[in-house]
Structure formats: C-alpha cells, structure tokens
Request: fold
Amino acid sequence: MTALLDVKNLRTHFHTTSGVYRAVDGVDLTVHAGRTLCVVGESGSGKSVTALSVMGLIDAPGQVQPGSEIVFDGRDLLRLPERQLRSIRGRDITMIFQEPMTSLDPVYTVGYQIAEAVRAHNDVDRKGATERAIELMRLVGIPSPERRIHDYPHQMSGGMRQRVMIAAALSCDPKLLIADEPTTALDVTIQAQILELMKDLRDRLGTAILMITHDLGVVAEMADDVAVMYAGKVVETGSVTDVFNRPQHPYTEALLQSVPVLGMSKEHPLRVIQGMVPSPLNWPTGCRFAPRCTEAFDRCREELPPLFTVDDQRSACWLCETGARGSAGVEEIYR
Amino acid sequence: MTESTAPLAPLPVAAPRRDHLLRRLLRHRSSRLGLILLAGYVAVIVVGPLLVAGSPTSDPHYQNLGESLQGPSASHWLGTDQLGRDELVRLVIGARYTILIGIGAVVAGVLIGVPLGALSGFYRGWVDLLIQRFIDIVLAFPHFLLALALVAVLGPGLRNLIIAVALASFPRFVRLVRASVLSVREQPFTEAARALGVSERRVLWRHVLPNSLTPVIVQAPLELGSAILTASGLGFLGLGVRQPTPEWGTMLGESRDLIFSNPRLLTYPGLCILGAILAFNLLGDGMRDVLDPRLRSRKRLPRRLRRLSGKAGR
Reply:
C-alpha cells in the first residue's frame, strides 16, 4: 500500500487578539491510494482545519506552523509556491464542502461552473468544456444533463447541487477527493444516495477519499480506515473494523457508545460524554481528554501520551503503553 | 417491462416566463412614475430636435435682439430670452447635455469606483489601507466644492464637467462596493472555487464582483440625480458648459439677473432640472424596493389574475 497523502505533525494555529488558537496541534494522517480515510471527531476538534490545511486554503490569521509536513505524491505541499499549489488544487486534490446550498455561485449556471473547473486545468475551448461538463453530470447521475447545464443553482435541490459539486471536483480525475461533511446538510435518503455515488466513483475512478464527518454511521458505510480526532490531535487510527470492534482509546469508546440505536429503552439510556471540548486557546496539559475521561489517572493529567502501536491500530492513551486494553467494541455495546 | 409501456417521452417543459426587471419596475408605483418621466425626457432628446426644426428660430443659437424678452406667443411658445432666442428650442436642445453629463459622470464614477472598491475589499491589507485613506481624503472635501475646484483647474467645458462630477462622486461607489465585497468574499462558494483551482484574480472578478453589484445598481440612479444637480450648479456659476450651448444650469446662470423682471426664464430650466432629478430618484427608489428580495413576496397578483379570481366560474 502506497501512501498518497502523508500528513506529519501538522500544526495550524490562528493568531488572534485574544491569543493563539491551536486548532490543529500535531496531526498525523495517512491516506492510501484508492482507499477511504474517515476523520471523525466532535465539533471543534480540528477536522475541517486539517482539510483546509491540506488544500492550502488557510487564510490569515491562520497559519500552518513550520515543522509541519504535508507530503502528497512525494512532494511536500507546504514547500510549493502558490502557483504550483493552484495547479494541484482542483486537478490532483479537490474538495467538496458541507453546504451544497452556498458552495455554488448563484449568478452562473451549474454548467458554466463545472466547465470553469474543467478549463482551469485543461487547455480546451468553451465547447469542449461544456461537453465535458455534460459528461461529468451524467457520471454523477444527474438526469438529462444537456438541459440541466442551463439551470442556476437555486433551481436545483440540495442533493442535485452536491452532485454538481462532485462533478466539478471530478473534472480532472483527481487522485484525492477531500469531502468535508458532504452529507450533513442533506436528508437521510439523499445522504445515502450521495454516499453510494462517492463509493461508486471511488471504485470506478480509483480516487482516494479523505472524508470528514461526525457521523459514525457514515464512517461505517464509507471508510476503509478511520482517524479519530480530539482537541486538535489524532487520538486513534486504524482500519474501520479494528477501531469499531476494539477501540483502544477511551474517547473512541465513549464516542461509539453515544450513538443512539433504534430500540433503545429507558433501562439502557444513551450514554453521553460529560463536559465540553476544551478551548483551543489553552489546551489542558497532559492528555487533552483526561478531564472528561472516566479512566483517567494521575499520569494522564501531567504527560501527553504519544501514539502507541497496538496490533494494527495506534492509540494515544497511557493505558495502551503496555499493549491492548480490554474495551467494549460496537458489537458489545449494541448487544 | 411489458410491451404496453411505451418508452417515456421527455415531458415538454415550458420555459418559465421570467419576471423581467423592467416589468417589476413598472409595477412599482414610484419607479413607474420615474420611468414615465424619464421616457418623456428621452422622447424630447430623440424627437424634440425634429419637431422644433424648420424655421431659423429653431437654431438654439439664433439671436434676434428685436424680439428679446418676449412673453409666450404662438411663434415662441415659452417666449424668448434676453438675446431673443426661443426658450423652448433651447430647453429641448439642452435636454441632451444635462442627461449626457449625468450619465457620463455616473458611468465614469462607476468605472473608477467599482474596481477600486473591489480590490480594496478583496485583498484587504495594505491595498485596502492605501485606497481607503485616499478615499477619506477625497471625502473630506465637500462634494460640490471639490467639483468646483476641479473645474477651476481643468477649465470649463462639457468633458471637464463630466470628469469633475465623476471625481466627486466615485468615492461613494468605492465604499459601497468594498462593503459588499467584504461580505461576499466570505461566502462558501469563493472557497469552493479556490478548491477547484480557480485563480485568486478570477475569484474576485468573476465570482465576488458580480455578486456584489446589487447596491451599485440601486445607487447609480440616485447618484445620477445628484450628478445632474452638481452639474447644473456648476453651470449656474458659469463653470459648466460654455455659454452659447443651451445647458439648463448654464441657462439658469445666464438669466439670474432677470430673476425679478422675467422669473419665467429661470422657472423653465429650473423645472426641467427638478423633473430630471425627480425621475432618477423615483427610479432609484423603486429599484431599491424591487431588487430587495424581502419585499418581493409582498408582490400583488397581476391585474389580469386579480380580475379572473374575482369572476366566479370562468
């Protein structure tokens, strides 16, 4: 398995008047060619900032700190000049966003916007780009694309718009598609359709997917690998089956336990994680999950645990220092 | 599929009838009045010269001191001025200058102001600082005084008048566009465009700017009224279009000594200026309402439909 994207010690900080927001503070991720990595975590854990950092779309006051490395296809993106970065954006790495309602420019037709993405990287004339746009729209399952290219975004439903976004993102057969909560704004049936479409495209085109979500159902549906983020750091990584069946980090376990299941009763109420994600202005010393962790002991509050290797997984918990800790997996929880 | 089900033919879709801006403006009370007034002015500019043509007196420069300061008569409907020139002919010919100055100045103001405002709001940083402090300086001068000083430097004349009025009015467009760009640049679609590899420059001119122009469309007619007023004021002070040319402001200025003996010579051009400014202000007012989507829902049914819904059984 070759690593297509290798993020090492990524730290993205925002310098504001009230202090330094360390939104992403030492993230390591690996996306393998043709596979799907899902990044899960609560709001504010730094998922989206990680994605934007990879795209090189962090605006002031945000700044990727020196020492971070984002190696894509053998090149460190952080060392590339903006010009080269732009030729990679949209061609080799593309991104789709959470809000299909506002991610399309309301003053142009959807056909124009897909064609714009095509023309940004290919030397084709307007006619060729329009033909490609129709082809792409057919690929993502938009009916009668010849007519729909003349539609404006407001004439389409949310699901259709997300399909248009995906079509534009696929204009140059990218190697990596970053999807930042692509289905959060859609209703469940449309959500399933979009996920199905993405899986289908991944298998047909061999595009690797880095998917950001807070929905564990989506992870189960889509992922080959999972990275669990908490407070600007990755706390656990591994294949989806390993992480779901044998979570090694107490946070992962708590996250899995807080998924509501159909048929829950008063005797087995939904478990929640007490407390809030700490502020990125001042992370707690030691393990950042310690204040909310039921298994925390003294060392947790003093020393930040590194990622320990446990079988094929990696987990940042002192309990894993000596090997796998016994924990409740999905099956056990849902039983 | 059984044989009886024929393949579905694509359903014919009627193109939705677009509710054109003009139609909406005509439905709005104040912009309708503005448009009617404006249509009158345009008609005078286009057809007027043909109607008054024919006799030597139809030349706005034709002087006949023997007939100076006559009251209205069959041969001179609005009388003559102190040099015996036909007042009506001069007003009709003058319409084009006033409108030309107004439109010229606003178009120039938009062409200077919009790009500056867009750059300022989009790039922020020192570009913004530089442009905004420059605008502060320009705005520190009273609008009219600035135009006056510019004409004094450039010299009178139609072209210089347009330049002076434009320079006095462009800062407002800069501020307007900047404010609008500042909010549009944060819209998710700009980030989406960047993520697709669209260049920064293209994001600004093709995505951010077109989405920021609505306030300019509303401001432009209002600015037209004020440009006409400024231009007329300069004309009145003798700094506008040069003497024999029958520009309304200049005509006012020429006859100011006669304000007590022959007030009609000031009244007619004054009314013309008033009407023009009123027309543009009404239009601008209506445009603001019509382009505001929050007010759109209060739109009434077209008269045709209202009548239909009143009649039962048809």
User: Anything to note?
Assistant: The interface with chain A takes residues 10, 13, 187-189, 191-199, 206-207, 210-211 of chain B (CB under 8 Å).
